[in-house]
Design a protein that fits this description.
By secondary structure, this protein is of the alpha/beta class. The protein has 13 helices and 22 strands. The chain is about 30% helix and about 25% strand. It is globular, with a radius of gyration of 24 Å. This is Dihydrolipoyl dehydrogenase.
Length: about 475
């Protein structure tokens, strides 16, 4: 007889494992299907994010930042350092140790919450009176389990360019770029999005000469124009050579390197030679080989599964969350959707305000925002007022030698409701949380302006920007 569960989650990335834990907390019998294997061939939970995405990339960003600080920025503190060297193998070992700790932690949480880990590939094979039938294959004999409810949380994979084979040695996607065994002298990056900028920053700090080729004519088009302009200026100053409006014509690889033929924004044919190439041109949903047709479901023309505002598919008791559905491909968005769906299955009435999901780019300085940009609001015909305050006159920012950037707040011109908060600064990923809380509670800029912030702290700039909406910043 097949194993039966109240909830089966397909995929154990941030959306999937969180959905499984929340459903278990609510008293459901839960199984989670996962087939991910690390380079050593061991099955691991956590999906792309924990294994080859968010967690390892932030570990390398931190290591490379420490190296750059020791090499170039400690002198201003009166600290002389000579002969700074980087041990790439040790840096990678530290990264791998963090990944192992995090993925093992999820395994512990599964045991704690009595979640069954079904090891292998999950695929729908039909419906029955008892529930949805899912085949799990890959480890031992295939088995079929039955679920009253299924949550599809299979995530996404890197989009590759046609006729550009990725070997994750010379030409790498996000996986290979997190595992280089040496610092390339010349590194090319196709794509100036989040992944391209973060991974380009890692290897630039460690000594690579980095050239970024971006197809779009504008830099960081999703960000507020003021933030994008500031970021472009700072990244250029750091040494990232970013070219916009590029059309890639041909990529040729040898055992030693790669040659990229492209056309620049003015129509000129150019050639770029590099030791390594990172391809970061977006991600595509993992919806193939799921057997969706066996239950009357299918992916749309872009490979996503269509859902409503509560992540319900068109098939009863089947939900989809995270990177396989509409909206930003962000781990924390997937987590929130996982919690929402688990609570819906429990007949609660949860809700997500997608306008209050923050975005973060972990460059230096970091970039973070929540809500709408000024250009979006103006395109909607909305009257707004803005306040902006720099970190260059903030005591804490000067003390830690990170004075770059600013906070920009946008509020409704009549009601003062906060509509967007945009930050480029050290620790922007942490600072943005205050803005998320404020927007969830429909706060006005005045509300933040009247809240006492600790001194000296980076958070004071949040308050000053809020006061700036009414043109009454206290320290400018």
């Amino acid at each position: 007889m097949s194993q039966q569960f109240d909830v089966v989650v397909i995929g154990a990335g941030p959306g999937g494992y969180i959905a499984a834990i929340r459903a278990a907390q609510l008293g459901k019998t839960v199984a989670c299907i996962e087939e991910w294997k690390n380079p050593a061939g061991a099955l691991k939970l956590g999906g792309t994010c924990l294994n080859v995405g968010c967690i390892p990339s932030k570990a390398l960003l931190a290591s490379s930042e420490e190296f750059e600080n020791a090499s170039h920025h400690l002198e201003q503190h009166g600290i002389d350092v000579e002969g700074v060297k980087i041990d790439i193998a040790k840096m990678m070992s530290r990264k791998d140790g963090i990944v192992e700790k995090m993925t093992s932690g999820i395994e512990y949480l599964f045991k704690k919450n009595k979640i069954t880990w079904l090891k292998g590939h999950g695929k729908f094979v039909g419906n029955s009176d008892a529930g949805l039938r899912i085949e799990v294959s890959g480890e031992g004999e295939p088995e079929v389990v039955v679920a009253k409810n299924v949550i599809i949380a299979t995530g996404s994979k890197a989009r590759h360019l046609p006729n550009v084979p990725v070997d994750n040695k010379i030409v790498a996607d996000n996986e290979g770029a997190l595992a280089f065994d040496a610092v390339p002298k010349k590194l090319a990056v196709i794509g100036a999005g989040v992944i391209g900028l973060e991974l380009g920053s890692v290897w630039r700090r460690l000594g690579a000469e980095v050239t970024v080729l971006e197809a779009l004519p504008q830099f960081l088009g999703a960000a507020d124009e003021a933030v994008a302009k500031e970021a472009a200026k700072l990244f250029k100053k750091q040494g990232l050579d970013i070219h916009l409006g590029i059309n890639i014509n041909e990529v040729k690889t040898t055992g030693e390197g790669v040659t990229i033929a492209y056309t620049d924004k003015d129509g000129n044919a150019k050639t770029l030679e590099a030791d390594r190439l990172i391809v970061s041109v977006g991600r595509v949903p993992n919806t193939d080989n799921l057997g969706l047709e066996s239950i009357g479901l299918k992916a749309n023309e872009r490979g996503f599964i269509d859902v409503d505002d509560h992540c319900r598919t068109t098939v009863p008791n089947v939900y989809a969350i995270g990177d396989v559905v509409r909206g930003p491909m962000l781990a924390h968005k997937a987590e929130d959707e996982g919690v929402m769906v688990a609570e819906l299955i429990d007949e609660q009435k949860p809700h997500i305000d997608y306008n209050c999901i923050p975005w973060v780019i972990y460059t230096e300085p970091e970039i973070a925002w929540v809500g709408k940009t000024e250009q979006q609001l103006k395109a909607e015909g909305r009257e707004v007022k803005t306040g902006q305050f720099p970190f260059s006159i903030n005591g804490r920012a000067l003390g830690i030698a990170k004075p770059d950037g600013f906070v920009k707040m946008i509020a409704d011109a009549k009601t003062d409701e906060l509509l967007g908060v945009h930050i480029i600064a050290a620790n922007a990923s942490d600072l943005i949380a205050e803005a998320v809380v404020a927007m969830e509670f429909k706060a006005a800029s005045e509300d933040i302006g009247r809240i006492c912030h600790p001194h000296p702290s980076l958070s004071e700039v949040m308050r000053e920007a809020a006061l700036g909406v009414e043109k009454r910043s206290l320290n400018k």
